[in-house]
Specification:
This is Bna3p. This protein has 312 residues and is of the alpha/beta class. Helices cover 37% and strands 17% of the residues. It has ten helices and eleven strands.
């Protein structure tokens, strides 16, 4: 709202967090999609986030005189990819060349399992001057219901646009919750909370993905976030299984997730929701699971998912 005029374009990498799209279109902006290309053997073997790639020539070719901004999400929901320093430097330099604002969605900034996490705004003064960085206490402290987050920038003018939009949208966030989150950041740094949290999630992923390793269902090993994408191509659901009419015109993953809930009692998100209709084939055999649960709960889910052996 603070950045866009009617007709301005924003480049969004697909798959994308669904809230990006209405936020752009509400302002009269136009969304331009550039794919994050999946590994070719996604349905055959376990893959890594680094194997999901952007064609930066395609990205640069998508920039026009109307391009105002690009949104980059790292660590990435739903892939679990952490963009590398090299990838972010390439993207940032292209944006500097064309004077395109970078909106860096880093709400999972403390949930990375790579050796390091690169913030695009730190790569050069020029890139920093074009970058708005978004963070979230909801993700960092598992307090999603509080709706507390922040936007950072080295560019005061750029930041003022975000501040003006925030004022018009919600005026202000509740002061007690802001105080709690601000103090939590300081306290977390003192007790090494974020590193301990990362190690806990490493354990959670190990518990949860063990069943997919056992069954031979390929997944993208998460480099960040608390999500994992699993390929269900090998799962054979009875052809005459009844589905509600509401999902018959949606992606195949909606039917898989419906079946999984009703037959095994395990809930997953259909990732075609992160794609536009024309591109949903790329994710029709995938499901996104979240491991932000206690370990005993995950172990119970693993036990239920073990029943998939009868459908392979």
């Amino acid at each position: 709202m603070g950045l866009l005029n009617s007709g301005d374009e924003v480049i969004v990498f697909e798959p994308f967090f669904d809230q990006y799209i209405p936020n752009i279109e509400l302002c009269g902006g136009k969304v331009v999609y550039v794919p994050i290309n999946p590994p070719k053997e996604l349905d055959q073997r376990n893959t890594k986030g680094e194997e999901w790639t952007i064609d930066f020539e395609q990205f640069e070719n998508a920039i026009t005189s109307k391009t105002k901004a690009v949104i980059i999400n790292t660590p990435h929901n739903p892939i679990g990819k952490v963009f590398t320093r090299e990838e972010l430097t390439t993207l940032g330099n292209i944006c500097v060349k064309h004077n395109v604002v970078i909106i860096s969605d880093e709400v999972y900034e403390h949930l990375f399992f790579t050796d390091s996490f690169t913030r695009i705004a730190t790569l050069s003064p020029e890139i920093g001057q074009l970058t708005l960085t978004v963070g979230s206490a909801g993700k960092s402290f598992a307090a999603t219901g509080w709706r507390i987050g922040w936007v950072l920038s080295l560019n005061a003018e750029l930041l003022s646009y975000a501040a003006k939009a925030h004022t018009r949208i919600c005026f202000a966030s509740p002061s007690p919750l802001q105080e709690a989150c601000a103090n939590s950041i300081n306290d977390a740094l003192k007790i090494d909370y974020f590193e301990k949290m990362r190690q806990e999630y490493v354990t959670k992923f190990k518990i949860f993905t063990s069943i997919f390793d056992k069954l031979g269902l390929p997944y993208t090993a998460p480099e960040g976030t608390y999500f994992v994408l699993v390929d269900f191509s090998k799962v054979k659901i009875p052809e005459d299984y009844p589905y509600p009419k509401e999902i018959l015109d949606k992606g195949k993953d909606f039917r898989i997730s419906h079946w999984l809930i009703n037959e095994l009692g395990v809930v997953a998100i259909p990732p075609t929701e992160f794609y536009i209709k024309e591109h949903e084939k790329a994710a029709e055999n995938l499901l996104r699971f979240a491991v932000c649960k206690d370990d005993a709960y995950l172990e119970k889910a693993v036990e239920r998912l073990g029943l998939l052996k009868d459908y392979l």
